[in-house]
Amino acid sequence: MRLLRLIKILFISLKFGLDEFVLAHSKFRFLRKLLQTVLFFRNKKQARGERLRLALEALGPIFVKFGQMLSTRRDLIPLDIADELAKLQDQVPPFEYALVEQVLIETYNKPVNQVFSQFDITPIASASVAQVHFAHLMDGKPVAVKILRPGIASVIQKDIKLLEVAAWLIQALLSDGKRLRPREVVADFSLHLNNELDLMLEAANCSLLGRNFPNSPLLQVPEVYWDWCHEQVMVMERMNGTPVSQVGKLRSMGIDIPKLARDGVEIFFTQVFRDGFFHADMHPGNIQVANDGRYIALDFGIMGTLTESDKQYLARNFLAFFRRDYREVAQAHIESGWVPSDVSIDQFETAIRAVCEPIFNKPLKDISFGRVLIRLFHTARRFGLIIQPQLTMLQKTLLNVEGLGRDLDPDLDLWKTAQPLLERWMSEQIGWRSVLKRIKNEAPHWGAVLPTLPRKIDAFLMHDVNQVAELKIELNRLQAEHRKQSRAFRLLITALLSAIVLVLWQMNK
């Protein structure tokens, strides 16, 4: 079976002229000419990106998902190909109800009519990994039931093995193979797919996002009904909304479209900079609008997370970029550890200016945040930056949010909408609010430590070796902790530790 699958892949690749991607190297010139002669009847008038997209669609849903993921790696592939792959839609014919019933019976160990008072046998949505049905619980509560495709795990594993072979060949044969890191890309794709095979993980993602936006005036997140959730089945609150792409219908409902566009930007930046946890698959198929104008989030299989360092890196870069402070952009890369500390900041600043300054020929409302990130990443790569997976997910999501926002309102000024959010967040991170917040968080710890200091100082003066050793351990531990804090809080703890050491030294003279 695997051999037949490999033959099919080769046939479709040749049919759509994908051999040009592999045979571009001069070493394969003779083979390229041979194929062009033998396969002279092929139609290669379409652009290379379009032919690649059509080939992936012909190969099936797993390859479609791989193409979608590949479209996010704009740090690795040409932009024309990335833009074309972003058009891929993960839509496949539904599997029959007999298989749905089989999965439900195996999951609950009872007939479907003893779990749900009503179950719609026609799915409301169908994708490569799962499909969704509407139903009612026994108490009459309307729900949406997401069910994994039977046997999808084995299909995925077989296709992943073939992708791994293809990645190995690309890395071995292409002159640019090592830079493209194809084996790393496939490994990352495999990890995301395997996560989607456990619907308990998706339910947990949905639940966390809902806790981050309780009673929000901007966003609705369905409630998870945990008693009915399993690895193969996820049951959640049924949401009633209008697809965000149906702008005409939304207008007829009295929805304020420009406000809706601004709200989408605010939701995204709140997820990123307040929570460090964001919906990373925000294409129009996963977003609806409620009758009251709030967004409804759906499908939580792909979520992104950011560390505090990631968030500070991004916020500093955005703010500095739009102030045209390229020195600060360079400094942010270095201080965040994304670029080696021995990089010449002057050269780095010059390179960033050369890439970014032309962008400002456009009005601010026409500048793409996502493409700014792409340009920064491409430039920083020359100075040793290794793109992190969470940043590529963010980049893809940001492009989706921009596209969605400007589809709703072509005059949307993303910078005007996002700037107050970013500046407020930065103030909370490095301003006086941050110092007070960290002091408050550390108060219980210091409350436990400070009362013991007089005894330890006394022991030090009495030359109690054991107590001295204990004091040194405590000071070292505090120093290790304070290195993790923000710059403002570091100064506070450093001053306190210095005062303690000074007192000890004076009393011991």
TrEMBL record:
Tell me where in this chain the ABC1 atypical kinase-like domain is found. 87-332
Query: Does Cell membrane count among this protein's keywords?
Result: yes
A Pfam family of the record is ABC1
Q: In which pathway does it act?
A: Cofactor biosynthesis; ubiquinone biosynthesis [regulation]
Spell out where the chain crosses the membrane: 488-507
Give any GO molecular function from the UniProt entry.
ATP binding
- What InterPro entries does the record tag this protein with? ABC1_dom (IPR004147), Kinase-like_dom_sf (IPR011009), UbiB (IPR010232), UbiB_bact (IPR045308), UbiB_kinase (IPR050154)
Top-level taxon: Bacteria
GO BP of this protein: ubiquinone biosynthetic process
Task: Write the record's keywords in alphabetical order, separated by commas.
Answer: ATP-binding, Cell inner membrane, Cell membrane, Coiled coil, Kinase, Membrane, Nucleotide-binding, Transferase, Transmembrane, Transmembrane helix, Ubiquinone biosynthesis
Coiled-coil regions in this chain?
A: 461-488
Could you tell me which PANTHER family the record lists for this protein?
A: CHAPERONE-ACTIVITY OF BC1 COMPLEX CABC1 -RELATED, PROTEIN ACTIVITY OF BC1 COMPLEX KINASE 7, CHLOROPLASTIC
Q: Which family does it belong to?
A: Belongs to the protein kinase superfamily. ADCK protein kinase family.
| Protein name as it appears in the record | 2-octaprenylphenol hydroxylase
Native organism is Candidatus Methylopumilus turicensis
